[in-house]
């Protein structure tokens, strides 16, 4: 009989033993261990998962950090998108929470590792903190460089725009000013903003460069534009530049107006008006009255020159423009109104010289009109009597050009009697010129009628020959020589004047007869 060396076997009754566990049982909860894992995961390197030997989750943390670095580096002025930062922060927080929860009951490889891991986690928080500080500095520098680049581009735009006319460069100037304003308002502490004073001084001198080149007319619009800049820029950024254009604009308005006034331009008064209303107390404004007064004097002197009609036209224009300028500017001392009045009077008086020139140039129609205007507007002028004679001669010369060979004098009378009769039913005016010049009017003949063209072609036709008629008539005395007559009905705009040239000799008595010939229309 066999048996156990330990004695006889005995039976065991009872339930079977439970199976052995597949992994070690959870460790007791340890808050220090959980905190250590959570802090290690906050470093962004997944070291908490490494401590727990969870390599896949550690790799996920490394991947998230690598993606963030790819987005953030190299650092530029735009920085990291907010969504990326928010997403990464959420991942770190989840990794810390999950790591802390997992580390609460997971044994570390070494029992004494929790305090050390906790200390290491605290120290490794310097990694994201240091990275954040480094990135912030790098981003600030990138922003500074971007602002400096914007400033350099704006300065270059101003420099290139200054090579062309203001009209084509204005939009570029405005674009550069937008950059300056943005730097001043939204980045006042930047290095670019500290360079703004120099850039703005260059901006003003470039835009206002025509003034420096003495192109006063060309400087007006740029300087006006510069006066609008203070309304768009912070005042503390401009300083004395805010008033920089004022004196220059006042001077430009005066010089441009003065140049065009001297050259006979047509818009000088607009420049002076702008000056007097914008800078009424400026030194330039005080020079306006002497300038227009000198222009009136030059035009008055020119009346006696070779182009009196041009001078008269200038005086008329000066009268109108200076008068309007006087009203629009206030003209407190009345000097402009006085200059306008003198220009008007001189223009009226100068019409005589203009009419003489027109007559001598053979422009008899213009001479007649000018002299008639002079006669009606200058009742007390010493030349009025002769102007009446010249107007008569000019009208005769329009039909008989030879009548205009000599300028009429104020002479009258003569030794030869000439009787002028009216064999016409119309009241007529008879103009004559030659050694003497004058005019007379005759009433219409009540018993007379207009002759037909056939009547005038009949043999023996002789008007004013009916002894039974009482022809309206008038006898005048004329000197010997050639006299040119012009007859025309009074009040008729369709009748054609008739003319006659008579050579008068002493010892003869002459008769001049006016009659009407009826054709398709009525005419003398």
Q: Topology of this protein?
A:
Elements: H1 31-42, H2 47-51, H3 55-72, H4 82-103, H5 113-124, H6 126-161, H7 166-186, H8 191-194, H9 196-207, H10 209-212, H11 216-226, H12 235-238, H13 244-262, H14 268-278, H15 288-303, H16 308-329, H17 335-360, H18 364-377, H19 384-399, E1 416-423, E2 428-433, E3 438-442, E4 451-452, H20 453-457, E5 473-478, E6 481-489, E7 498-504, E8 510-515, E9 517-518, E10 522-523
Parallel strand pairs: 1-8, 4-9
Antiparallel strand pairs: 1-5, 2-3, 2-6, 6-7, 9-10
Helix pairs in contact: 1-4, 1-5, 3-4, 6-7, 6-9, 7-9, 11-13, 13-14, 13-15, 14-16, 15-16, 15-17, 16-17, 17-18, 17-19, 18-19
Any key phrases for this structure?
524 residues; Immunoglobulin-like; three-stranded mixed sheet; 10 strands
Give the H and E element order: HHHHHHHHHHHHHHHHHHHEEEEHEEEEEE
Alpha-carbon Rg, integer: 55 Å
Please state how the strands of the largest beta sheet are arranged side by side: 3-2-6-7
Mean pLDDT: 83
Number of helices: 20
Largest sheet: 4 strands, antiparallel
Query: Which geometry do the CA atoms define?
Result: rod-shaped
Q: Find the structural class using helix and strand composition.
A: alpha+beta
Tally the beta strands.
10
Low-confidence stretches: 1-12
Q: Approximately what portion of the residues adopt beta-strand conformation?
A: 5-15%
Distance N to C terminus: 187 Å
Q: Percent of residues in helical segments?
A: 55-70%
């Amino acid at each position: 009989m066999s048996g156990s060396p330990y004695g006889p076997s005995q039976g065991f009754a009872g339930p079977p033993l439970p199976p052995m566990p597949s992994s070690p049982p959870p460790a007791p909860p340890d808050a220090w261990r959980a905190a250590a894992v959570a802090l290690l995961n906050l470093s962004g390197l997944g070291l908490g998962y490494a401590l727990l030997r969870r390599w896949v989750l550690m790799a996920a943390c490394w991947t998230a950090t690598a993606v963030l670095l790819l987005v953030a580096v190299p650092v530029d002025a735009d920085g990291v998108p907010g969504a990326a930062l928010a997403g990464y922060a959420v991942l770190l927080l989840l990794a810390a929470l999950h790591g802390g929860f997992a580390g609460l009951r997971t044994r570390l490889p070494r029992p004494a590792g929790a305090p050390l891991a906790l200390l290491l986690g605290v120290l490794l928080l310097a990694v994201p903190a240091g990275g954040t500080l480094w990135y912030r500095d790098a981003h600030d520098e990138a922003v500074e460089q971007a602002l400096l680049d914007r400033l350099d581009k704006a300065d270059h735009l101003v420099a290139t725009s200054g090579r062309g006319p203001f009209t084509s460069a204005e939009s570029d100037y405005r674009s550069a000013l937008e950059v300056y304003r943005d730097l001043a308002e939204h980045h006042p502490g930047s290095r670019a903003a500290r360079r703004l004073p120099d850039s703005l001084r260059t901006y003003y001198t470039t835009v206002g460069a025509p003034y420096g080149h003495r192109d006063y007319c060309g400087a007006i619009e740029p300087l006006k534009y510069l006066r609008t800049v203070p309304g768009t820029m912070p005042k503390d950024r401009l300083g004395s530049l805010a008033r920089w254009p004022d004196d220059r604009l006042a001077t430009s308005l005066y010089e441009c107006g003065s140049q065009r006034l001297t050259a006979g331009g047509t818009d000088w008064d607009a420049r002076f008006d702008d000056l007097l209303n914008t800078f009424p107390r400026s030194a330039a404004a005080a020079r306006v009255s002497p300038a227009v007064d000198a222009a009136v004097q030059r035009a008055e002197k020119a009346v006696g020159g070779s182009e009196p009609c041009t001078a008269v036209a200038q005086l008329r224009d000066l009268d109108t423009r200076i008068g309007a300028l006087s009203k629009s500017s206030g003209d407190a001392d009345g000097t402009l109104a006085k200059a306008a009045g003198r220009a008007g009077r001189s223009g009226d008086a100068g019409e005589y010289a203009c009419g003489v020139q027109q007559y001598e140039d053979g422009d008899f129609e213009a001479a007649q009109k000018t002299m008639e205007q002079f006669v009606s507007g200058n009742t007390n002028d010493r030349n009025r009597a002769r102007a009446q004679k010249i107007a008569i001669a000019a009208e005769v010369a329009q039909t008989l050009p030879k009548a205009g060979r000599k300028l009429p004098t104020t002479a009258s009378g003569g030794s030869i009697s000439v009787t002028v009769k009216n064999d016409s039913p119309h009241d007529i005016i008879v103009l004559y010129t030659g050694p003497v010049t004058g005019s007379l009017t005759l009433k219409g003949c009540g018993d007379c009628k207009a002759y037909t063209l056939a009547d005038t072609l009949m043999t023996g036709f002789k008007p004013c020959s009916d002894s039974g008629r009482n022809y309206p008539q008038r006898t005048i005395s004329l000197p010997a020589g050639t006299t040119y007559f012009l007859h025309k009905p009074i009040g008729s705009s369709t009748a054609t004047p008739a003319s006659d040239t008579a050579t008068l000799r002493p010892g003869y008595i002459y008769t001049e007869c006016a009659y009407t010939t009826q054709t398709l229309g009525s005419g003398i």
